[in-house]
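Quick question, first post here. What does this chain look like in 3D?
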Amino acid sequence: MSSEIPLNGGRAANDFIIPEYAGLPDAGTVVAHLGENRELQRGAVIPPIFQNSLFTFPTCEDRGRKWVSPDADVYDYTRVSNPTTDIAEAKIAALEGGEEARCFGSGMAAISGAILSCVKQGDHVVALETAYGPTRQFLSDYLCRYGISVSYIDGSDPQEWADAILPNTTLFYLESPSSVVFKQQDLRAVTAIAKAHNISTILDNSWATPIYQNPLLFGIDLVLHSATKYLGGHSDVVAGVVVGNKQRMKKLKFEEGCLLGAILDPFASWLLIRGLRTLPVRMQHHQKSGREVATRMLQHPKVAAVYYPGLPGDPQAELTRTQLRGTSGLLTVEFKERGHEAVYRFCNALQYFGIGCSWGGFESLAIPSGAMEKSLGGTGTEHRSLVRLHIGLESVEDLWDDIENAFKTV
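> Answer (accepted):
Ran it through. Tokens below.
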């Protein structure tokens, strides 16, 4: 392993307005150096890919060391651990301020593995109403087979979490900011409630990334990412990751990680390492362009609302100021003209935005987004006219010209 990364090196002074973040290592130094050993890599600036399924040993006794001490620096089988994947995990754990990370073959594998590590038959989960759709499907439609129930709440008020607790509640599932409408939860307050009732907490941090938010430092037990998104950043890898303390991660690694088998392939791990190299600078660009587009959208005569933390009139401005160090390139726009025809015409007219379901890569994307009116603060079940936009790394002026031309169809 490389030498220890110095704390606070190179971070902007305003990062420390949020006291929890004061002890984090510099993200740029972590992604460039942590977890690597140039001597073992024979001087190569890029680590090798250990694209193999198993590892052999000179003697039976040498192999036995792995099973006497599972934490020993000995590799046996890539489903358990792999040197290339270890580098990605070490970097992500350090970025999040956690002790260990476990990579999975997809974001959904990370989500399901993390949840399963915190529940058993007969348990109850409290989850955010605006959580990622497949997460809701896993909680509502899959876990019910095993007698696990779920209650959904808005989650903006910490008291909602306390009021939803049942005698068998074992998990709070959070997304902050959440999917589509980017609602935040008060992490300090919610984790205090959870710890008082011996309830585990999981938070999906894919939107903010560890560059702009570190939920573990507010008391969250497990943080996860769809690493397919910003961590990979090039739209060429499908991956997930869970980060936590050693005790929780040891259990998750050898149970959900090994037994469910949803590992990250070594070549995909190598691609993830490549993406992490530029994560800090990419997020700066995504943030700058995302904020610019969101601000202009807010002033557009055909727009009813923009969902993006930190804009003028942000209903959660205090949480934005005290939890987020920055924002990303993902936002949702609500049109004044109702109906899916308007958003279809808009998306179909875009030239620089691809129509696609993912986000977090270099490219800009647009997709109609079906959020129920209740999740937007209404009381009915009508779908509003929403478009989710991911602002990529292109020129923001080119993207805005494209958006303005598309608005002519609305």
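The CA atoms of residues 153 and 160 lie 7 Å apart.
The chain is about 35% helix and 15% strand.
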